[in-house]
Amino acid sequence: MHGINALNGMAGARLRLASVLKAAFVTIVFLLAGFSPATNAQSIPAPLVASDSAADAAATPIAPELDDIVSALCAQFRVTRADSIKIAHAVLTEANRYGMSPVLLLAVMAVESGFNRHAVSVAGARGLMQILPAAHPQLLARAGDLSDPATNVHLGSAILRGYLDDADGDLGAALHRYSGGGRGYARRVDQRMQQFNAHFQSVANANPNANPAAATKPFLYTAWHPDDSAGQ
To answer: Over the range 112-126, which residues count as b (16 or more CB within 10 Å of their CB) and which as e?
Structure first.
């Protein structure tokens, strides 16, 4: 009996040892498979890198000089030289402050007021960028004269920049909101931008001393075409 028990004990010990070794082997294989550098490299997708070529092509409007803006306002919109200088200063200052194209700001003003700084709409919107006091009471709480170009362009640019940020850079959506939902508004702004760009490009081409970098200064909003904003 004792011999049989001994044999049975030895056999059981060998079986237990084999089970332990097998479990250890399985664990090692699992760990190696789970933490293999090659396995990790294949399981983690490479980061997506967007091509800058399309964005750069869409974000290269003309960046006009002050004198270019003044001459355009005087000749095309019959704005006095004194007012044109004030408007040009305000446009370049706020475009730089808020990271927007000066051509965009000019286009909005052309559509909104035709550069009449004393313009008042039926709804009560005022000045170059037709700011509606009732829609922005907090922003305008300490505002001065809305017919003053510096004040009006500063506030209008702040409002438009906020709409751009809220729309994740979608210019069509931002313009649609800026106009209060006016149909065709974004398209009219786009047309004005094209006209200003064509004018400033012709000026730059005619000036051999023009800074080539000024004609390709990028601005901050996504590529947009009015065809993508139907009804805006």
So the answer is: bbebbbebeeeeebb
Give me the half-sphere count of Cα atoms (radius 13 Å) on the Cβ side of residue 5: 2
Chain segment 18-61, per-residue pLDDT in tens? 554 444 444 443 333 333 333 332 222 232 222 333 333 334 45
pLDDT of residue 80 exceeding 50: yes
Q: Which of 60, 184, 179 is nearest to 108 (CA)?
A: 179
Q: Using an 8 Å Cβ cutoff, are 36 and 172 in contact?
A: no
Enter the DSSP assignment of 48: P
In 3-state terms, what secondary structure has residue 61?
A: coil
pLDDT of residue 158: 95
Instruction: Give the domains, in start order, of the chain with CATH numbers.
Output: 66-132+141-208 (1.10.530.10)
By CB atoms closer than 10 A (0-12, 13-18, 19+), residue 153 is: buried
Residue % of the chain over a pLDDT of 70: 62
Looking at the annotation, which residues are catalytic? 112
